[in-house]
Amino acid sequence: MENKLIILIAVILGTIALSQLVRVYELSSKLRKTGEYEVSNRDNVLMARLMLIFMIFQFLGLIYLMIKYGWTGLGVAASNEGVETDWLLNLNFVIILAIFFLTNFLLFYFSFKYVRKPGVKAYYYPHNNKLELIWTIVPAVVMAVIIILGLKSWNKLTAMSGSDAIRIELFSKQFDWTARYAGADNVLGRHDYKLTTDNNELALVTSNTIDTSIRVMLQGPSGIEAIQRILNNRDTVLNDSTMNALRTDLSRKERLLRLLFQMKGHHSKKQDNSAWDDIIQKDTLYLCVNQPYEFNFRSKDVLHSAYFPHFRAQMNNVPGMTTRTKFTPILTTEQMRKKMNDPKFNFVLLCNKICGGAHYKMKMIVVVKDKKSFDVWMKQKSKETFKAKYFPAPVSKAPATPATTSAAATTPM
Amino acid sequence: MASVAHDEHNHADMHHDEHHHEEGFVSKYIFSQDHKMIGKQFLMTAVFMGIVAMLLSVLFRIQLAWPGESSDFLSFFLGEQWAPNGVLKEDMYLGLVTIHGTIMVFFLLTGGLSGTFSNILIPLQLGARDMATGFLNMLSYWFFLVSSLIMLISLFISTGPAMAGWTIYPPLSALPQAMSGSGTGMTLWLLSMAIFIAGSLIGSLNYIVTVINLRTQGMTMTRMPLTIWTFFVTAILGVLSFPVLLSAALLLMMDRLVGTSFFLSDIIVGGEMLANHGGSPILFQHLFWFLGHPEVYIVLLPALGLSSEIIATNSRKPIFGYKAMIGSILAIGFLSFIVWGHHMFITGMNPFLGSVFVFTTLLIAIPSAVKVFNYLTTLWRGSLIFTPAMLYAIALVSTFITGGVTGIILADSALDIAIHDTYFVVAHFHIVMGMSAVFGMFAGVYHWFPKMYGRMMNMRLGYVHFWITLVGAYGVFFPMHFVGLAGAPRRYYDSSSFGDFNESSYNMIMDLNIIITIFAIIAALGQLIFLFNFFYSIFRGPKAPQNPWNSTTLEWTTPVEHIHGNWPGELPTVYRWPYDYSKPGSDVDFIPQTVPLADGEEEH
Q1: End residue of a domain, out of B178, B193, B216
Q2: ipTM value of the model?
Q3: B 278-317: CB under 8 A from A
Q4: Tens-place pLDDT, residues B317-370
Q5: Which CATH entry fits the domain spanning A279-382: 2.10.220.10, 3.20.20.100, 2.60.40.420, 3.40.50.150?
Q6: Residue B91 to residue A309, Cβ atoms within 8 A
Q7: CB–CB of B474 and A95 under 8 A?
Q8: How far apart are the C-alpha atoms of B385 and B374, rounded to whole Å?
Q9: Which whole-number Å values give the CA distances from A346 to A75, B37, B39, B431, in the listed order?
């Protein structure tokens, strides 16, 4: 509180002091008979010089920052695609730095050089078609080069990935990442958000997960039957808002349930295996060096963005659709540590689209291994398939059947 | 014909005045229909909103430079709820960022810049008695004021203001379960913006009609000052693009309140499985940026117009390539409508569409380059007078270049992948649109202050203010590019997560963040000098002469004391373009537009 008082007093005193200074200045300028609209030659020349001095500091500052910080933040690109991006980025930087230095130099130098000199009249020069044509065409040509090179890279970066690419899904939610390897068949099992349950966080579609979801929707702790029991309980009186909330909840769940039954009708058991062999991996994403990857992105709740700064790759995760990107890592974590001269360095996957309060914490460490150690890890990991980990055998259909029949009896059609 | 009708009206007015010597306080200062007063009202409101937004930025800059450290400054402004023990809360950090962006873009640089100067300059520079309709003009200000108040109120509610970033992308902004600011705060944001848009539309239509219909005799379109051209094109951009934002806001409102699924699909949030299906968050982004990109030029064009006028006047030279300047303004205006997708290269939009937007976006560099070279040639062999306005106008050209060239990188989709949504982007748009437009606004205030208040601002304080602001601006935004190149995402509460995987880049980001914050605080303090100078001069500044800068345009032919109808007698007649400075064969270095061509004199 004391601090605030001191600040307040300081501000008030400062304002008074300033106004007194201005008053003095005002009186003195009255003596000199200037009315604040005529710039004295002294001031004018001073401003012109300051313009030039500012330019020098601006240029030196930029050069200093470039030398000191240039690319050190990220280091060399660690993917095939990134190497090309960096090459193009550097080329573009050369072009724009040239433009920056040239035009800013002219701007500040002209400001300095052509400051008003007593007796020298400005040169009346309203237009010159030839000049104007030149500086329309030159930027157009430069832009054409930039566009052509840029689109060439863009087309390469966004082309479909080859059949040799390994598919990995990156699933995002507030505020973490989960990876899913496509498993032995290299096909990512289908997913549907309505199938999300405790042991199926990624909502993969199999006959079994559909049945489980139907069961949870009907008989789960806040399932349809539970809600109906509360609503139909004659011993309790609910206030209007609770009742309305329950009814809204009930109708939403009934709609979802109908959709689940539809899904069950369309699903063929033959498709199950593409999901069963998928491998779910949390905390750390392991990749194999020199192996092309195709990443599929998905979001559970809001927009996220998968940003791999060191691989120069990025793509948004959009609820309701799947997005894709691809890259081939060319440096292992070990190699990159040596290049960065930092034994604790790691690649990373960051969230780069505002997604809530803890947005800034949402990340996943990425480890790139050489082929040999990756294979060792994968061999171990491939035992933990979706089926083995979350729906271990024997998978029994028994509990699902009564659920179905009771659902048919209770769901209003 | 029109001028005859106006004269009669004016006559009636003077007659009227004989009976009532004074206009009532309310009709003169509050519900005024006079364009000059409305312009000043816009300016005052915008200055206040600007101070708020700047303060918000200082608050979150403190958090970024010294994360987790207790700050009296934070607790003073945010209290225990949002800054317990002087440490900013994560949610409020995003709230501050969101409202800072919203106020700066819409309330300061759209309402403030084009609202103020379109109002003051369009009738004065065209030789009109007032806007086409004074009542709608008044209405547009009151819509603006109400929306400003709602936006301010949203800062004080218990769940906090909108927090989804100024782009308010759903689903985050649609789901109160996702973050606290998406509750009432977001509703107020949408309400405020809907009213703002209504006001902006009314204003823009008025500007367009005035420019088309109320030009005085001899004021052909190609004799209009470039300021008017930019206000005119800006108003057209506003009329064509703001309704699209309104539609986006309304659809979002419906998704939030009545359960539609325009932007929502397959979402589970806070443990609740939503039944919304089939909507697309990308649709919102298309709608938002269909306004959002023209918005950049709505902000920038008036600033470029003001600086064209100021640079010509204070170089004592005609603006070089007047027709080319008009052409570039029109080209920029047109292209601004077909480039919005460059904000969306990595949103999941079809990559082919992305390549089209790369092409159209980079085309904008051509008219922009023409403008820059024309400014440079205007300075060349001029006789420069560095008033504070002139300094700001030149600084605007500098930031327009600096921010423009980094735009070339961001517009290139292949490169955008690597730096999208990092601080590189933040630095880019703050320099090219934030700083340029603010400099344009300062230039305008210093230059037209005598016209607005009949007094002069103190020049030396103007100089001090200018150098602090310019050094501060570059001091903030040059280093910020490098924070972005180190891969630091924007809208991060702190960069602590970098410490977990790359110590050196963490140290670099932290070093730069401290430098940036120090410059930001210095620049913010520098604005106190402006505020003092501004308010002090309104009351105590030396009386202004009629034409303090020896300008050629019509506003300087009006009397210093404001009168209703602007010119006491007949409306002036225009005989020449507005840039006859230092014309050979003339004794004085400027020939006002109202002076007829001499025998044998060519127009230009």
Answers
A1: B216
A2: 0.92
A3: 278-282, 315-317
A4: 999 999 999 999 999 999 999 999 999 999 999 999 999 999 999 999 999 999
A5: 2.60.40.420
A6: no
A7: no
A8: 18
A9: 12, 60, 56, 33
